[in-house]
Structure formats: structure tokens, C-alpha cells
Amino acid sequence: MGIVLQTPKEPREIKDLIKSVRSRLGANRSIKYDSFAVWSFNQLPKYLWESWKEILRENKVSWQDFLAILKLHTKDMIDWALYDRISWEELVSRITETITQNFEEEV
């Protein structure tokens, strides 16, 4: 049957926090600052993990595996949180697709 992950409610407060952190870093258009902002306090990873941890653990996806997958989607997280280039649904879809591609075959 495979891994089926439901889209959790969009975490507007996390998005606002990311934008706030980014604005405090200054106007420099640096990818390093954008990346730092989306990863600050690990709020987005924790939120998604909390939503999916039972299913992920059942499919042998560890917290460390999950963070490695999210790292691949740093640009997508930036596009969602800071620039509104992609929707929450699109971000989640891209992340879940990577999880599925990397872990369904191993189960």
C-alpha cells in the first residue's frame, strides 16, 4: 500500500516566525540567511514530524532520515515561507514524494 501522509494544516505561526527571523537578519538577499531562517528552531521539521511520526516510524523512517529529506527541500521551504512562490500543499506534496521514493522500496 505504501506510505500515505495526510497534509497537515498550514502552520501560519511557523511561517510568520520564519519571516520574522529572516527580517531580523537584514535586507541582504543571501541564500544563507534564507536557509537559516527556515531552519531556525527546527519549528517546521518538528511540526511535520509530529504530524507524521507514527506512520514514518512504522515505515522505518527515523528523525535523522526525515531531517535529511527536509534538507533536500530547503529551497522549497524558502519558496513557501519567505516568498510565497509555492503553496503549503505543494511544499507538502514535494516532501511526501521524496519520502515515498526513498522509503517505500525498503519496507
Description of the structure:
With 107 residues, the protein is mainly α. The chain has one domain. It contains 6 helices and no strands. It has helices at 12-24, 31-39, 43-58, 63-72, 74-81, 88-103. It is elongated and about 45 Å long. It starts with 11 loop residues before the first helix and ends with a helix. The model has no long low-confidence stretch (mean pLDDT 94).
Biggest pleated sheet: none
Q: Treating each run of at least 4 consecutive H or I residues as one helix, how many helices?
A: 6
Uncertain segments are none
Radius of gyration: 14 Å
Query: How many domains, in number, for the residues?
Result: 1
General shape? elongated
Mean pLDDT: 94
Q: Could you spell the SSE succession in H and E letters? A: HHHHHH
Strand content: under 5%
Secondary structure: number of strands: 0
Cα distance, first to last residue? 11 Å
Helical content stands at: 55-70%
Please identify the structural class as seen in this structure.
mainly alpha
